[in-house]
Amino acid sequence: MSDKISTTSLAKLRDLDPKQLFNDLKSAGYINRAEEGWLLTQLGGKFGGEYVDHPKFGKFIVWPENLLIDTIATSGKTLSATQLGERFSLSAKKVNQLLQELGWIERGENGWLVTTSGLTVGGYQREDKQNDALFVVWHDSIARNKRLKQSVVEFSGQDAQTHATDKSLSSFRQKFEAKHRTLDGHYVRSKGELIIDNWLYMNGIVHSYDRQLPIEQDVLSDFYLPSGKVYLQYWGTDTGTTSEHQQQTLRALYQQHNFALIEVYPDEIEKLDDVLPLKLKPYGIKAY
User: Fold this and answer.
1) What letter does residue 213 receive in the DSSP assignment?
2) CA dihedral for 274, 277, 280, 283, sign (positive or negative)
3) Which of 42, 50, 223, 269 has a CB 3.0–4.6 Å from the CB of 232, allowing a cystine?
């Protein structure tokens, strides 16, 4: 088990009421409420929070004994899409479109619903009972979120290269240059990816290539299919199959963040018409 301690133990160490400490952590944006209990946010993870699985008490969050609860950087107040848009000079509609594309909210019958990924970046579900409408508000730390800021830069057509913070991705792209041009104009790194991209395009499935996962780490997914909120990873290159270690590492990352993942292997490339429709169906994506 980790040498970190539970929230209750941390409260005792600091001579605080556990309820007060939970409220402080929530106000700071380190934890959020989910149906199953307290959820560690990405911000909480940056400050040293992590999950442990205890044989008796199950899964819970632990913290460093010297945990800094940074209340200076946040007011603890929430921001609506309109208020968030004012920060980025965008309309509320455009903000919600970006948040949806990042997988943090999704359309429901009565409005916007926060997703599990959205909860981890400080989203809170709200209901306008007068108008029977659902909407999402955000912990003010969202305005500093690396991936949201990156999406705003790219959407607004600003100089993404100048504003880029992910030097590791730039190095990756230089080392593994995308040379194969697909039917829809994407440049991909392998013939397998080219065949997958062309298959998606010919089947009318909207997709992005080299999609940065909406997390703090700099990790690219091969494809993202926004209509199904699902990522697609091809475990192959022009010289062989992706190593088992790399596959396991990436799978664990997807599972950790509750991202839906479709996996395609080199021996499936020649039979995508049989393979992909079945893999896409659970996510509501039809292909003929």
Assistant:
1) P
2) negative
3) 223
Region 166-283: CATH code? 3.40.960.10
7-39 per-position pLDDT tens digit:
999 999 999 999 999 999 999 999 999 888 899
- Output the pTM of the full model: 0.77
Q: Are 123 and 182 in contact (CB under 8 A)?
A: no
CATH number of 5-63: 1.10.10
Question: Which conformational region is residue 236 in: left (phi greater than 0), alpha (psi within -120 to 50 degrees), or beta?
Answer: beta
For the chain, the domains span: 5-63, 78-148, 166-283
What is the sign of the dihedral through the CA atoms of 50, 42, 233 and 173? negative
Q: What is the DSSP track for 26-46?
A: HHHTSEEEETTEEEE-HHHHH
Average pLDDT of the chain, as a whole number: 89
